Amino acid sequence: MLMLAGIVVLHITTIILLLVAVIDNAWWITDTVSTDLWGRWELTNSAWHYTNLKNYPEEYLQTVQATTVLACIFTILALFVFVAQLFTLPKGQRFTFTGILQLVACLCIMIAASVYTAEFHANETKGGYGHSYVLAWISFVLAFILTITYLILRKKSE
């Protein structure tokens, strides 16, 4: 029972970190600019102003946006499937379907963060990756741990 609670807490933590990474505006930050996946905030005259993402390759930006949203969807779906499998899966069976869903979410996170790393801000010397970017990579690691856990885990046969 304690292991089950730990898995659910880890899964919910992964979902929260992933949602914060996608929603918050700190993928790339400087003293006067804060950029997320959806827009750019610029500090002018002591006030933050929202602008669209300019000079970003549209196909790469849409790839990062789509894969982060898909990662959120698959991670949340995997939690619901895990809970459903707790009640429907025969004893002694593995949580393979949940593991596959979590693996897809994990790959989506990796693709989004990798494309962002390779295609955006590669030649910029001013600024750095923000906490949302770091949270995306942490979510990737947690999702990968969950994937391995679900693929190894068997429903207890008592």
Task: Give a verbal description of the structure.
This protein has 158 residues and is an alpha+beta fold. The longest helix is centred in the middle third of the chain and has 31 residues, at 58-88. It contains 4 helices and 5 strands. Helix 1 packs antiparallel against helix 4 (131-152) and helix 2 runs antiparallel to helix 3. It is elongated, with a radius of gyration of 18 Å. It has a 5-stranded antiparallel sheet. The two termini are 13 Å apart. The protein has helices spanning 2-23, 58-88, 96-119, 131-152; strands at residues 28-29, 33-35, 40-44, 47-51, 128-129.
Core attributes:
5-stranded antiparallel sheet, single chain, 11% strand, alpha+beta
- Beta fraction: 5-15%
Helix-and-strand structural type: alpha+beta
Quick check: average pLDDT? 91
| Alpha plus pi helix count | 4
Rounded to an integer in angstroms, the radius of gyration calculated over CA atoms is: 18 Å
Task: State the shape.
Answer: elongated
The ordered H/E elements are HEEEEHHEH
| N/C terminus separation | 13 Å
Tell me the helix content: 55-70%
The overall strand count is 5
Low-confidence blocks of residues: none
Largest sheet, spatial ordering of strands: 4-3-2-1-5
Major beta-sheet overview: 5 strands, antiparallel
